[in-house]
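Readers of this paper often ask what the protein records in our data store actually look like. Nothing more is needed to write down the fold, since each code stands for a local backbone conformation. Below, we set out a record of this kind in full and without editing:
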Amino acid sequence: AGGHSIDSPEPIFGLAVTGRLSLEHLKRNGGARPGDLLFLTKGLGVGILSTAQKKGLLTPEHAALATRSMTTLNRAGMHFGKLDYLHAMTDVTGFGLLGHLAEMCEASDTQAILQFDKLPLLDAAAIDHYIAAKCLPGGTQRNWDSYGHKVGPLTERQRLLGCDPQTSGGLLLAVDPAQVDDFLAAAAAEGLSLESIGHMSARGAEQPLIIAAA
């Protein structure tokens, strides 16, 4: 549970939802283990596309990309919670992928080796086009200022994608590699075609929480 404060010119409708769950199926952002494979269930780029829209630069062909992602429910998490070999799970929202992955690493005492070329994007060509047009949310730099010291060296594109704030982003999952085939089948049953974006490793005391794969 939580929330955040923003300065916004648009009116915003807020609500809260309560429900019940079985505690034995509760997943936390801690508990990932060295060797676990990392998966992300939605593409990145919501913040970049939303900023392009605010600047009046979003083209009609890209108009529905962010909306379609934001309105896609993370209902698969209800089923993933029942998988014992799924060791940690969290959603990716305003802190961007790197922020929420850093939290998972801290809570699990692990290091993440991230394959940036495997990151799912809502539309890679569109995202690169709007990055070149400087359609970058203010939250991107604030995110990096907040946790960049916990991350190893990155290219500018890697940083902009990893720090891009997501609204209703996907689920970030740490899965036992020995059960990956079963997990991918479970994901496919939920309509998800997933590919690993990296893995967890043991972390030394002076090592960054997240590094880019060579």
Q: What stands out?
A: Residues 118 and 197 are 5 Å apart (CA to CA). The radius of gyration is 17 Å.
